[in-house]
């Protein structure tokens, strides 16, 4: 890696400067060198400050995998972490609050706590990667309910699945991003509760057989209970997302829109995007669940609620909220 020094640091034009006499008793070259060293130290310190701050944030957030830790937070902070949509709604004027559907799925904290057992690996609840398939007829034939995650490459799908499985740290979420690398559907068994399928990321250059694979799976998988369609909250619905939305609509699938990376935007930008997507869901879709699920795999915001929703729609948890 090449270090970029601020201008004035040794090597950035100092050799062309005419030497002027330094303070009495200090040879000019000595002072220049000393200053350069100080500037260099400052540059290096600045270079490492940002990653260190990110590491601190990630260490702080890593304690929020488990809901028991979340429950210890002050109320306002906990609400923000568990119900990010409610936090966004607070910024709206009373009359425009109806624009967001924040409480269609509104489980109690107790329900969210219970859902955690479904996602926690124990000797009686084995959570593991099962197999991969490039064609539907290679997919495991399991009787348990299934949910699948789809989204364009880089939307944050692997990170989200890792966050959902953070209470089963031995689960390996496989990523095959190299261009030309075979893209597969990856199946994860969550004990006796359900199967989670990580579908290959799509993009403009998705080959035909890939589209066939996704289409065939979505159309024909009998035990598929819900499709989770991921949209990057920073950029909103893109052209490729629309293709996936159209596919879900055409096959009359029940699907849910999950908005990823909500920690990346300012509150104002996020609210704008969320309202735009909500409007789209209300006006242009039939099969999409009306409530959006904003999440961050970095801060764990929205992750516990999403776990609870999955436990609910796979028939593993009855909640008061739905
Ligand atoms: P995938 O291609 O959809 O599986 O996307 P990844 O999970 O690999 O994420 C793509 C990039 O987005 C990576 O650099 C991740 O670190 C980053 N990313 C994913 N989720 C989040 C998130 O919630 N917040 C932030 N800040 N970055 C994220």
TrEMBL record:
Annotated region (Disordered), positions in chain: 1-28
Required cofactor names: Mg(2+)
Highest taxon above the source species: Eukaryota
Cross-referenced Gene3D superfamilies: P-loop containing nucleotide triphosphate hydrolases
Domain called EngB-type G: residue spans: 143-316
Keywords linked to the UniProt accession: GTP-binding, Magnesium, Metal-binding, Nucleotide-binding
Pfam family, one: MMR_HSR1
Cited InterPro entries: EngB_GTPase, G_ENGB_dom, GTP-bd, GTP-bd_ribosome_bio_YsxC, P-loop_NTPase
PANTHER family to which the protein is assigned, alphabetical: GTP-BINDING PROTEIN 8 (PTHR46498:SF1)
NCBIfam families: GTPase_YsxC
Family: Belongs to the TRAFAC class TrmE-Era-EngA-EngB-Septin-like GTPase superfamily. EngB GTPase family.
UniProt name for this protein: GTP-binding protein 8
């Amino acid at each position: 890696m090449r270090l970029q020094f601020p201008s004035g640091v040794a090597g950035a034009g100092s050799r062309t400067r005419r030497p002027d006499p330094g303070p009495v008793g200090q040879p000019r070259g000595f002072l220049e060198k000393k200053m350069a060293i100080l500037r260099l130290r400052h540059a290096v310190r600045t270079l490492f400050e940002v990653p260190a701050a990110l590491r601190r944030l990630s260490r702080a957030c890593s304690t929020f995998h488990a809901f028991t830790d979340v429950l210890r937070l002050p109320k306002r902070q906990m609400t923000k972490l568990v119900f990010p949509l409610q936090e966004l709604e607070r910024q709206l004027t009373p009359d425009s609050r109806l624009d967001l559907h924040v409480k269609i799925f509104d489980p109690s904290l107790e329900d969210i706590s219970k859902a955690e057992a479904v996602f926690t690996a124990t000797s009686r609840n084995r959570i593991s990667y099962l197999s991969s398939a490039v064609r539907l007829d290679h997919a495991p034939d399991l009787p348990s309910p299934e949910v699948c995650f789809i989204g364009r490459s880089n939307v944050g799908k692997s990170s989200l699945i890792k966050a959902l499985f953070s209470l089963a740290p031995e689960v390996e979420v496989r990523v095959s991003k190299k261009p030309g690398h075979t893209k597969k559907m990856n199946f994860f068994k969550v004990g006796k509760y359900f199967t989670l399928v990580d579908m290959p990321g799509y993009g403009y250059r998705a080959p035909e057989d890939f589209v066939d694979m996704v289409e065939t799976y979505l159309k024909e998988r009998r035990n598929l209970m819900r499709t989770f369609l991921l949209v990057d909250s920073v950029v909103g619905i893109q052209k490729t997302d629309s293709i996936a939305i159209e596919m879900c609509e055409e096959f009359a699938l029940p699907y849910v829109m999950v908005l990823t990376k909500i920690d990346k935007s300012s509150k104002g930008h996020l609210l704008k995007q969320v309202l735009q997507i909500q409007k789209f869901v209300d006006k242009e879709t039939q099969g999409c669940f009306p409530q959006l699920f904003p999440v961050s795999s970095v801060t764990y915001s929205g992750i516990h609620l999403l776990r609870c929703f999955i436990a609910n729609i796979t028939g593993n948890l009855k909640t008061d909220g739905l």
